[in-house]
Description:
Largest sheet: 8 strands, mixed
Keywords: Nucleotidyltransferase, Transferase
Structural class: alpha/beta
Strand content: 15-25%
Radius of gyration: 22 Å
InterPro entries: Rhodanese-like_dom, Rhodanese-like_dom_sf, ThiF/MoeB/HesA, ThiF_NAD_FAD-bd, Ubiquitin-activating_enz
Helix content: 25-40%
Pfam family, one: Rhodanese
GO molecular function: nucleotidyltransferase activity
Protein name: Molybdopterin-synthase adenylyltransferase MoeB
Shape: globular
Order of helices and strands: HHHEHEHEHEHEEEEHHHEEHEHEHEEHEH
Strand order of the largest sheet: 3-2-1-4-5-6-9-10
Amino acid sequence: MLLPAEYTRYEKHLNLPEIGVEGQLKLKQARVLVVGAGGLGCPVLLYLTAAGVGSIGVIDPDTVAISNLQRQVIYTTEQVGKPKATVAVNSLKKINPEISFNAYAYALDRSNARTIIDEYDLVVDCTDNFTVRYLVNDVCVMQEKPFIYGAIHRFEGQVAVLNARLAPSEFQPEEIRRGPTYRCLFPEFPNQMEIPNCAETGVLGVLPGVIGTYQANEVIKLITGVGHSLSEELLMVDLLAMSFQKIRVRRRLDAETAAQNGWEEGQRTVAKTEIRQSITALELAQRLTKDEDIFLLDVRERPEYNICHLENAVLIPVNIIANNVKRIPVDRPVVVYCHHGIRSQYVVDYLQKEFGFTNLMNLQGGINSWARDVEPEMEVY
């Protein structure tokens, strides 16, 4: 039941016949996991918290960077360098102290995805990491849970409600149907070297606010059962042209098999690359002080490298890695790094898969973590 204070807090919801007390109770009882507390995650978290979703999980391995503040509206300048998940939850508690929050200040991966997602009714995909996005899809399909997809690029964004239960159709009145999955929209994982990132292409600051708000709207509709859901449609938004378009999407017949195969393929890949392919900034610093012969590979763009870089690092930007493989040694440790460790992880995966490298390590958290943990006087953009 709703407490007296909740009747006051959610008065405007209660005045809507479509939501009312029954709908607000559904929101209070709902458990939602938000994967990613960045540009999309911030508006999603703010509006779900304000709406009274009873239990919210926030998972993000990153820390707040000064360049985040142009669009990630939960954070402040004073919080730069602190874990996003923890900072976000502390801020959200001040907005609505009645809600239960769980902060996971680490990455969603194959070792924890099933266990974490199992604790929630639905998932909101706010990540910009394709590996995590396919992982969310596969686990949600296997666990029969809906998830709300959102993506942004420059001035454009997409929103869809995936793997949601659909109303019985005229031809399937008794059968429980589900909507399309992420693998129905995008069957093939993109080439690692073709994946765009905000550091290279940029993004309009208000775009994630718009797309994230649409995602939050779909979550509320899905929980309360009101309105028309984007469960069989992909909404595409272009803020530069101020245009909106919907594309009809159908669930592929082998959606469950595709998810299971995706999960199993990922497990096999993990098993093949058990050679640990990451290193922390502190570990790297310790090894360098011992004069260990480590090749430092910077995969950012030239302007980023000119602002700051590790001493003796060799610059080979992501988009020319394939043509410069011979410059990367195979007979000594190679530490690959970028700004936050995302692009460099793609490079590590790509070089291992396509060229058989076994001596690569990704710098966790990128040069941002190095500046935070090893060289605080370094000026990072």
